[in-house]
Design the sequence.
């Protein structure tokens, strides 16, 4: 190689190096302007105290969670109270996720990552490639951030023995960041709580009829019965005679009544008005629960309830009670009374709605009289 050839080679290397450096600075500038820096939070400027409304929507459903009167509520469930722990946990996680990866991805490829906004799907049903829109707003209704959650990112874990982990475990999620259509990021959490079903967000507090003194089943087409006991730990009996009660059946039905759980809240007043079975429970706390249960075509039940009465303000002293025991027991009763009164207030507030319960939850409450009696007695 002569001197002239060597100089041309040096010039070519310099030109290539300059082009590479220019491309590097171009990519770095684009990266810095993307506000999606690796290791940084996805939405660093957003504060949880600014958020008063969360809207989630996908191709099938939509949920709007609104902070009203210092409580979070579900708009699609008639303003029913929402689960504060679930909402706050989701928002905190959303604001805390870190960017693991950031890549330029054109809008034409968003469908492959399920990052199309609702209403912009492809395919015959218009749902293919649609992601979950998450919209965060302040108290005035101003949208603070709007992003689309796409496919969950899986991470291989050869030590995980579970069958559903063979393809990997959820470790992150593809996201179309707020205000961007040219880049896609992968964040550090799968954000699986981003559920668009309204029923997934309602508070699960339900009435709890306990310390039952008497329980009666009546209604159209129901094999009615009434049972009772004189003391809280006394033996259950049929009220008014008519056979010998099976103690285990009585315990089963009363335990079931104290542990009911609903699957969703109902806002349609026309549901659950025909063929109603009625359970009336009177408790040792002077409370009366009237529960109306209506079967539905899908096998579930629509349940409505009312609570009336008030617990005694003072405790009834036991015979030959010592003064030191009386003071302790009175204090314990006062504390339990406060909790009970708070629970009753909450139950009375919840009684304005109707609820959907699975048949397996209700079936134990609707035992026929012959199922409640000792066989052959």
Sequence:
């Amino acid at each position: 190689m002569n001197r002239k050839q060597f100089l041309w080679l040096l010039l070519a290397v310099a030109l290539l190096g300059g082009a590479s450096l220019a491309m590097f600075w171009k990519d770095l500038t684009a990266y810095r302007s993307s506000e999606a820096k690796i290791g940084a939070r996805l939405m660093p400027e957003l504060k949880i105290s600014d958020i008063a409304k969360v809207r989630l929507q996908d191709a099938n459903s939509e949920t709007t969670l609104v902070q009203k009167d210092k409580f979070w509520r579900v708009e699609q469930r008639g303003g029913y109270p929402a689960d504060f722990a679930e909402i706050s946990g989701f928002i905190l996680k959303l604001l805390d996720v870190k960017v693991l990866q950031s890549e330029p991805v054109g809008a034409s490829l968003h469908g492959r990552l399920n990052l199309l906004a609702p209403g912009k799907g492809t395919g015959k049903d218009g749902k293919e490639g649609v992601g979950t829109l998450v919209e965060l707003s302040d108290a005035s209704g101003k949208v603070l951030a709007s992003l689309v959650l796409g496919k969950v990112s899986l991470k291989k874990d050869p030590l995980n023995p579970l069958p559903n982990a063979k393809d990997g475990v959820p470790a992150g999620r593809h996201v179309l960041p707020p205000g961007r259509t040219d880049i896609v990021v992968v964040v550090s959490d799968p954000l699986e709580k981003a559920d668009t079903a309204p029923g997934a967000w309602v508070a699960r507090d339900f009435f709890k009829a306990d310390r039952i003194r008497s329980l009666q089943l009546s209604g159209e087409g129901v094999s009615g019965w009434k049972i009772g006991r004189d003391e809280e730990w006394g033996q259950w009996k049929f009220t008014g005679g008519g056979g010998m009660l099976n103690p285990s059946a009585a315990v089963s039905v009363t335990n079931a009544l104290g542990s009911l759980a609903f699957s969703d809240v109902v806002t349609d007043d026309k549901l659950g008005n025909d063929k109603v079975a009625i359970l009336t429970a009177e408790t040792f706390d002077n409370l009366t629960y009237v529960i109306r249960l209506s079967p539905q075509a899908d096998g579930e039940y629509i349940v409505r309830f009312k609570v009336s009465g008030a617990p005694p303000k003072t405790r009834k002293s036991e015979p030959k009670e010592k003064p030191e025991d009386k003071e302790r027991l009175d204090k314990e009763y006062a504390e339990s009374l406060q909790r009970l009164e708070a629970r009753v207030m909450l139950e009375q507030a919840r009684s304005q709605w109707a609820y959907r319960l699975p048949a397996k939850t209700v079936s134990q409450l609707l035992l026929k009289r012959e199922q409640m009696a000792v066989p052959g007695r």
